């Protein structure tokens, strides 16, 4: 069972349009409403794979009630933490060429009591079930300081839990001191963490190694169209897959993390699963998570021969 923690969940509306024309009336050709937030997406991908998952998240107002309803409909157990503020609503506009325009609301401000209740709910859920991993994902809402994830990691490790962390900025740097088992940055977050640009795959490998020196047990780094890296104590691997057309990249990184954890969360086989899930996700609309029928493991390549000189398709300055 995979337990997910999403401190700042959302209700996500995705509109597909032929093109986005600023200042004009744009008519959508498709519309989806999904429960959102990085940890929520991990739970959705785990559930789509037929595995049990519990989503811990603060929920408030009508949007929060709808998030819980949508998750329940997808077979996801919800451990809600009631909060006074309303859960945020986000909007994404997807164009046929894969361009995605997102408007993310800030979300409610959590009180100190609500922040502690969130930590306590994670503890209760972990102790009550046979949990393989705790996946802590996404930005922190107002009211939660940068050390909140670090506190969660410390408490989880004290209970002998394995932690996967997908966040960025000060929250990531603070949590590294508590040695999370896996961190999953994208290229931009990786560059921000080490404080310098990333131009090549080799630059990304070096940055991942630095995150390990800072405390991460393993680094699963998404490099967009260029593939994914896994760097841990036993070596480094590079994974890639052919993608014919990108429909939406919403939740693709979250799907990758789910695939990695489903496959055990360690080594090249888990990386191959991460790549397969991420490649499948970008070919689906909105934030739809791939199921087994959407995966193409035969199209995935994982190797220790990392193309260190390859220039990233989207270098990070």
Automatic annotation (TrEMBL):
One biological process term in Gene Ontology: carbohydrate catabolic process
UniProt KW Nucleotide-binding keyword: yes
InterPro entries, alphabetized: 1-PFruKinase, PfkB_dom, Ribokinase-like, Tagatose/fructose_Pkinase
Superkingdom: Bacteria
Polar residues: compositionally biased ranges: 1-11
Ranges for region Disordered: 1-37
Pfam family, any one: PfkB
GO cellular component labels: cytosol
EC number(s) stated in the UniProt entry for this protein: 2.7.1.56
Entry keyword set: ATP-binding, Kinase, Nucleotide-binding, Transferase
Compositional bias segments (type: Basic and acidic residues): 13-35
GO MF, one example: ATP binding
First-tier enzyme category under EC: transferase
Record-annotated Carbohydrate kinase PfkB domain positions: 16-287
Protein family per UniProt: Belongs to the carbohydrate kinase PfkB family.
Identification of the protein by name: 1-phosphofructokinase
Source organism of the structure: Streptomyces fagopyri
């Amino acid at each position: 069972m995979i337990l997910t923690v999403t401190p700042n969940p959302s209700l996500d509306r995705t509109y597909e349009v032929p093109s986005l024309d600023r200042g004009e009336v744009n008519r959508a050709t498709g519309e989806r409403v999904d429960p959102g937030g990085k940890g929520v997406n991990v739970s959705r991908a785990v559930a789509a794979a037929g595995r049990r998952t519990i989503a811990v998240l603060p929920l408030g107002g009508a949007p929060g009630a709808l998030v819980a309803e949508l998750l329940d409909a997808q077979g996801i157990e919800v451990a809600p933490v009631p909060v006074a503020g309303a859960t945020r609503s986000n909007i994404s506009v997807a164009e046929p060429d894969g361009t995605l325009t997102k408007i993310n609301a800030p979300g409610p401000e959590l009180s100190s009591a609500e922040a502690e209740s969130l930590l306590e709910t994670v503890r209760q859920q972990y102790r009550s079930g046979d949990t393989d991993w705790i996946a802590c994902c996404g930005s922190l809402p107002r009211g939660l300081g940068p050390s909140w994830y670090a506190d969660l990691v410390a408490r989880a490790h004290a209970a002998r839990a394995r932690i996967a962390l997908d966040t960025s900025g000060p929250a990531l740097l603070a949590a590294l001191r508590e040695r999370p088992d896996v961190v999953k940055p994208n290229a931009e977050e990786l560059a921000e963490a080490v404080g310098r640009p990333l131009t090549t795959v080799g630059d990304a490998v070096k940055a991942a190694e630095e995150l390990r020196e800072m405390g991460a047990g393993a680094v699963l780094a998404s490099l967009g169209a260029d593939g994914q890296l896994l760097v841990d104590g036993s070596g480094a691997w590079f994974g890639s897959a052919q993608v014919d057309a990108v429909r939406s990249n919403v939740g693709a990184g979250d799907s990758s993390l789910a695939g990695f954890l489903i496959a055990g969360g360690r080594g090249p086989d888990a990386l191959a699963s991460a790549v397969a899930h991420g490649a499948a996700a970008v070919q689906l609309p909105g934030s739809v998570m791939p199921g087994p029928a959407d995966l193409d493991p035969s199209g995935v390549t994982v190797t220790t021969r990392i193309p260190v000189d390859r220039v990233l398709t989207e270098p990070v300055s």
